Amino acid sequence: MDRGLWRGGSGRAALEFCGPGRAGAAGRMGVRVKPASFAYHVAGSVPEAVALLGGLGDEAKILAGGLSLVPMMNFRLARPSALVDVTRIPGLSYLRADSDGLHIGALTTHRAIQTTTDPAVRRDFGVLPRAARWIGHYPIRARGTFGGSIAHADPASEWCLLAVLLGAQVVLQGPGGQRTVPAAEFLHGYYTTDAAPDEMITEVWFPRMSGRAVLTEFAQRAGDFAIVAAAVRADIADGTVRSADVVVGGVGPLPARIGTAGLAGQPAVPETWQAAGELAAAQVDPSSDNHGSAEYRKKLTATLVSRALAQAAGE
Ligand SMILES: Cc1cc2nc3c(=O)[nH]c(=O)nc-3n(C[C@H](O)[C@H](O)[C@H](O)COP(=O)(O)OP(=O)(O)OC[C@H]3O[C@@H](n4cnc5c(N)ncnc54)[C@H](O)[C@@H]3O)c2cc1C
Fold first, then answer.
1. Could you give the count of Cα atoms lying within 13 Å of 4 in the half-sphere of its Cβ?
2. Checking phi first, is residue 223 left (phi over 0); if not, alpha (psi -120 to 50) or beta?
3. Which of 37, 113, 123, 266 is most buried by a 10 A CB count?
4. pLDDT of amino acid 181
5. Is 74 in contact with 174 (CB distance < 8 Å)?
6. Looking at residue 61, what is its pLDDT?
7. pLDDT at residue 226 tops 90
8. 80 CB within 6 A, ligand 1
9. Weakest-pLDDT range from 8-12, 98-102, 277-281
10. Which positions ≥6 away from 232 have C-beta within 8 Å?
């Protein structure tokens, strides 16, 4: 790497990456890359990342695992003027279960969640390690981060679904300090969130839950994003549903919460799960695209919700 391309400033180093045939701001050819030109900064701490984002303006973006952002840059669907690489910030990769619930550091990889051996996480939040296997394939899970998935806000993302289902809180650090936003309010629509350009997600916190949660989905090929995914939580006692929550992904711009009030008091039997699946299908309004028609997505919704509830009931 040509060290001459490094530009200093307030102790922060930046590297210029130039799109094909483009010269960098200094007039030299920077490191030649596929995306449009951008400057590259490395943050050593959360305050430094926030300060960099504030100084670089609204076109700068955080770089975490890069698995969603870099392909979008390569296709020129995203053209950030600068990247702030947060992957070297220490202390943001953790899973911590305590009396409040489960705290997940923003830089925790999908793989770290999938393979956690923490008995408290496996006992009380086992749905997260179990759900991780649905995310992409091994290299994606080894590098992609929990915070990156929530920030990317794909409506079929497993973590977005579970965050909405279980009432998770997204913790953000910005120039004015820290704030916490419920996941359902944090997600605004396709790839848009409540995060300001100079804010960074540092943690997502899941409160304790009652009952058992399950996520299941259908994709055309293993490793693809789900065409439809269903996440459910069911609290069942003495063969009767005490309460249940259902969230469906892949049927609109946001994880869709299904009205489940009618499930309380119902017997925990296959007919109840089937009826709940049909009720969910009636409540979603998906569009057709080249992965499946609206009607197909509704059928998947009915099947997957019914299947997930049966699994949550231990069938
Ligand atoms: C082939 C393939 C298959 C995949 N399959 C799935 C799948 O089945 N399910 C699934 O959920 N995902 C899937 N993904 C996406 C993957 O999970 C990504 O890891 C994830 O979407 C983004 O995480 P990242 O760490 O790579 O973030 P990046 O790509 O680095 O960033 C994504 C966005 O989030 C922002 N961002 C990142 N971290 C933060 C932060 N801490 N605070 C604020 N903003 C931040 C970035 O600026 C950018 O806008 C797949 C990706 C690929 C390439």
1. 7
2. left
3. 113
4. 98
5. no
6. 98
7. yes
8. no
9. 8-12
10. 165, 213, 214, 215, 244, 245, 246, 247, 305, 308, 309, 312
The predicted pLDDT at position 25 comes to 53
Q: What distance in angstroms lies between residue 225's CA and the mean position of ligand 1's atoms? A: 12
Assign a CATH topology to domain 95-207: 3.30.465
- Please indicate whether residue 249, judged by its CB atom, sits closer than 6 Å to ligand 1: no
**Nearest Cα residue to atom 41 of ligand 1:** 201
Exposure of 256 in the CB half-sphere (CA atoms within 13 A):
23
Instruction: Compute the average pLDDT of residues 34-63.
Output: 96
State the architecture of 5-85 in CATH terms.
2-Layer Sandwich (3.30)
The residue type found at 184 is A
Instruction: Tell which one of 81, 141, 143, 149 to mutate to probe ligand 1, the residue whose CB is within 8 A of the most ligand atoms.
Output: 149
Give the number of other Cβ atoms within 10 Å of residue 96's Cβ. Answer: 16
Q: Where are the domains of the chain?
A: 5-85, 95-207, 212-312
Among 228, 259, 232, which residue's Cα sits nearest to residue 155?
A: 228
**Nearest alpha carbon, ligand 1 atom 20:** 149
Q: How far is the CA of 147 from the centre of ligand 1 (A)?
A: 8
Roughly how many angstroms between the first and final C-alpha of the chain, as a whole number? 57
Rounded average pLDDT over 279-299: 95
- Chosen CATH of 212-312 out of 3.40.50.150, 3.40.50.720, 3.30.390.50, 3.40.50.2000: 3.30.390.50
Helical segments of the chain, H only: 46-56, 69-74, 110-114, 119-124, 127-132, 138-143, 146-152, 158-165, 183-186, 270-283, 294-312
